[in-house]
Every structure is written in C-alpha cells, then in structure tokens.
Amino acid sequence: MHRKTEVSLASRLLRVAVVGLLAAGLMGATMRSVGVAELAQRSEFIFEGRVSSRSAERDSSSGLIFTRVRFDIIDTIKGRVASRSLELRFLGGSLGTETLSIPGMVLPGVGEHGVYFVESLWQQQIHPLFGW
Questions:
Q1: What separation, in Å, do the N-terminal and C-terminal C-alpha atoms of the chain show?
Q2: What are phi and psi of 78, to 5 degrees?
Q3: Which residue in 66, 61, 42 sits closest to 126, CA to CA?
C-alpha cells in the first residue's frame, strides 16, 4: 500500500511538472497580430460555425484535463471534414474540484458564433485554433 502512494505521488508530481513546462512555454511565447491572409495560409481548415457544447475529460495516458469543444459547421471556407460538426480538444478545464488553466488561453464559449481557423485537424495541440 505504501508503494501505491509513492507511485501516485510521483505521477501527480510529474503531471504538475509537465503542466508547469507547458504554461511556462506559453507565457514565454510572443503574441503577434497576423492578417487574414496569413491566418488562411497557415490553417488546414476554416469554417463558419457555432459552439454547441463543451465538456471536460481526463486524458487516460497523461492524466491531464482537456476540454472538448463541439462546433456545428454552418459553412466550410477551406478544407474538408466528413460531417456537419467538429470536435476540437483544448488543454485545460475543470473536473469536479480540480482545474487546469493555461494563463492567457481563451476557449470558445457555448453559443458563440464565428469564423474559426483550425491549424491542424490531425495533430494534438494545446490550442488547435490558429485564430477566430
């Protein structure tokens, strides 16, 4: 039983270290304004849509909290997806009393309507939107 506690504590410390490194990387990143042409060029998928739901979950391999955001696609501007909805996964969120937040990161809210620039549909990223 003592061994299980050590593993659990080590696992939690590792998760905290990973989140700290991710947050430090984000805080050290430079924010810059980009034009629509660059947004369009660097995005794999661009669509007009509305956020229909958000839900948090714990990743089974890392133990980190992610938020799944589901969009109803109104119009496709660039790229293709197989359905009229799209779900993107963002690092962070709240599960019960536990919250993982990334400084300065904003997620689209339920009911929000806009044009969304998805950097990649296939690579797992901290924040999959290049802009919106």
A1: 49
A2: -150, 135
A3: 66
